[in-house]
Amino acid sequence: MERRICEAVYESVMSQRLTPGTKLPEAAICELFGVPRSVARKALQRLAHEHVVDLHHNRGAVVAEPTPEDTRQIFQARRALEAALVPLAAARATKTDYASLRKQLREEHALLHRAGQPAWARQASAFHLRLGELSGNAILQGYLAELVSRCSLIVALYEPPGNAACEHGEHVQIVDLMESGAVAEAVKINDNHLVDLERRISLERPQPAQTLAQMLGLA
């Protein structure tokens, strides 16, 4: 049940149903999912560890509210890390690896118009994580996984919909450039890709008039 709660909250955040600052009272979680407080508390602690919710001593759990400075630092760190990872990945990637990347991009394209935000976000993130794997550096790959996760959350919370096609096209460009040996240009396109993603984020959003059950897709 702990996993079910975490998945429901995560999916609702990624679908933009749960908005920043929404309260997630333990009592309400217990009632909605039919679990004891100990299970609800563990689920909220796990979500806090993954930066999906913030735990406050007086307010309890609320959906995370990344600040402009949080956003700037997270994207800055990710751009610096991927600028190092792309050349490492290009140096190690084989024809088989590129074929696998292109298969992944075809799957990404297929999700553009027929999948919801959570499925698209996972697939788009998977592209960058795959580049991290190809780098062969497990330490950098671990840092990337955390940064991609936190960026995905910020994008889900604050980015207006309708930019998936642009992001997919940039992924294709990056792979084309890497495979052709234009690694410096691939790094530049990837950096611009992340800069554009950050620029599209708007930290202002009206709160929808919905119950917690509706936002969690349980009503």
UniProtKB/TrEMBL annotation:
UniProt keyword annotation of Transcription present: yes
Domain annotation HTH gntR-type: ranges: 1-66
Presence of the UniProt keyword Transcription regulation in the record: yes
SUPFAM superfamilies given in the database record: GntR ligand-binding domain-like (SSF48008), Winged helix' DNA-binding domain (SSF46785)
A Pfam family of this chain: GntR
PANTHER family in alphabetical order: HTH-TYPE TRANSCRIPTIONAL REPRESSOR NANR, TRANSCRIPTIONAL REGULATOR, GNTR FAMILY
Protein name in the entry: HTH gntR-type domain-containing protein
